[in-house]
Amino acid sequence: MGQHVRVGGPKLPKVRIIGGGLTGVLAAFQAHELGVRDIELHDRFDQLGGQAVPRQDHGLELRERDLTFGSAADPVRRLLESHGVPFEDIENRKGAVTACNGDLTYTRDFNGPALRTRDLGLSPLAGDSLADRIRAYPTDIAQALSRICQWRLGGWLDEVHADTAAAIGVSRVFPVGPEIVEIAGLKRADTNHDALYGIPAPLWGRLQSLGASTPKDGLGPFFMRLRQALVRLGVTLTAPSFVSPHAALAGRNADEVVVWAADPRPLFKPFDLEAPKPEAHSLVTYILKVRYAGHPPLEVRNFTAQGAVTRLRLYETRGQVLLAAECLTETRDTDLRREIHRLMAGFGGAGLSLGETLAIRMEPRWDILSLDAARKLTHLRKALTRSEGAAFVAPRWEEQDVAARHAALTLDLAQALQVSAPAVLAA
Q: Are 145 and 173 in contact (CB under 8 A)?
């Protein structure tokens, strides 16, 4: 993965990682890549993977949430493959459904809203809230986008951080009406237009974005292989093991680096800081057996601002295609199936047959970032830096993108260990 040059003393410190989800596991691999050989990984549960580990039903993986990686050049995938963890290349099929004047618009190879507009002019991005981001669009787009976000979040958009746009799929809008060459020209010429507008990949030749990968044989074997790879490297795995913030802070040796990859909220109390209020919103996921004439995996997002379903995911496990319907509220079986067919009508819905429901699960999600939480996380990081310097690494918990979160964590680890950061981060 690259050569790393020690610029400090002759021996690298021990790295102790709290949290055995994907972030903690990647921290262990990256610490080893940076030259550390004394690594401990603690998790409160008896298996790695955290909330990403799927439940099983007769050997089928019931995935309330999925986990995909980039193509062969993805640094996270390359890191894991270098330790013997296999991946399968897939076509990153996605789509979106948007309402316009009572009709539904089905957009392939793009998972943001497709909204009609008369012009492409943008106002400057001013402010950190989701409402500020929406106000940068032309009025016709902004009004439609506000309705979608209010339906999806049910809260005051001025209190939600702009980064939440990525979590709910509205980080980019496909403007319907203007010519594609005009949109593409503005995206190439201006960073704001590039950040706020998107184009379905095939329409402007960006076919590389359709490539992705998934762990071979499913998520269960994936996390088992991660564990085996860590053991081969000599990483000490301690699970179940509960490490309190006090133990992590007060018990840290002078020659030890701690990575807190677990829930950050317990860290506020030792510094007498007010923790952010939980911004959890509960989503209900229904998982159904299906027969599908198309090719999974496929993700379809709902931007009609109607119904209960926010997202559909079709995936294959042990030769059986399953459909996960993510909903804002519980819904009757007949209504759910009617809505699934309605959303899938533009994506091979005629070849979709819905079978039995295997699971219904309501669970909180923490991907909605409030302005209050963003400010308080910044205050926490400053307090940690004042108290511990670079030796207590706080991952970018609010970052949803695995690759971006891993890149930031790697830079922080390299600084704490006083080694050069890997050049592959720039790839």
A: yes
Task: Name the nearest CA neighbour of 22 among 248, 208, 219.
Answer: 219
Nearest to 288 by CA among 103, 12, 63: 63
What share of the chain in percent tops pLDDT 70?
A: 95
323 vs 60: CA distance, rounded Å = 12
Measured CA to CA, the distance from residue 419 to residue 4 in angstroms comes to: 6
Rounded to a whole number of angstroms, the distance between the first and last alpha carbons of the chain is 11
Cβ contacts of 315 within 8 Å, gap of 6 or more: 63, 66, 296, 297, 321, 322, 324
Q: At what angle do helices 22-33 and 219-233 cross, to 10 degrees?
A: 30
Query: Per-residue pLDDT tens for 160-201?
Result: 999 999 999 999 999 999 999 999 999 999 999 999 999 998
- For residue range 242-277, what is the model confidence (pLDDT) as tens digits? 999 999 998 888 889 999 999 999 999 999 999 987
Structure tokens at 382: 């400053």
Q: Which pTM does this prediction carry? A: 0.90
Q: List the Cα angle 370/372/376 in 5-degree steps.
A: 120
**Backbone torsions φ then ψ of 152, nearest 5 degrees:** -75, -40
Closest CA to 313 of 92, 164, 112, 154: 92
Quote the CA–CA distance of 207 and 20 in Å, as a whole number: 35
392-408 burial: b if 16+ Cβ within 10 Å, else e: bbbbbbbbeebeebbbe
Both tokens of 38, joined, read 């004394």
Joined together, the tokens standing for residue 111 give 């998972």
